Each structure stands twice: as C-alpha cells, then as structure tokens.
C-alpha cells in the first residue's frame, strides 16, 4: 500500500494536481476571508 501511494505521489501529473488543488483551496479561502472581512 505504501509503495502504491509513493508511486502515486511521485508521478509528475499527480504532483501538479495536488499542488493545483492546494493553490485553488488557498485562493478560495483568501477570497472568502477578505470578502467577509471588508474594511
């Protein structure tokens, strides 16, 4: 199981998907946070 996960994470395409998802969630969080907290 561990080897399958490692192979999965070492795939360039998968890494890009994970990073892309993380960036998208981070951007969404910032948009929501700044949108609800207007100064």
Instruction: Count structural domains.
Output: 1
Distance between the termini: 49 Å
Name the beta content range.
under 5%
Residue-averaged pLDDT:
86
Count of alpha/pi helices: 2
Helix content: over 70%
Question: In sequence order, what are the helices and strands, one letter per element?
Answer: HH
Output the structural class. mainly alpha
Describe the main β-sheet briefly.
Answer: none
Tell the overall outline.
rod-shaped
- Rounded Rg: 15 Å
Note poorly predicted spans: none
What is the strand tally?
0
Give the SSE layout.
Elements: H1 2-10, H2 12-36
Structure, described:
The chain has about 40 residues and is an all-alpha fold. It is built from two helices and no strands.
Task: Note the main attributes of this structure.
single chain; 39 residues; mainly alpha; 2 helices
């Amino acid at each position: 199981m561990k080897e399958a996960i490692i192979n999965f994470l070492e795939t360039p395409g998968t890494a890009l998907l994970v990073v892309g998802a993380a960036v998208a969630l981070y951007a969404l969080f910032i948009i929501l946070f700044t949108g609800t907290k207007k100064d």
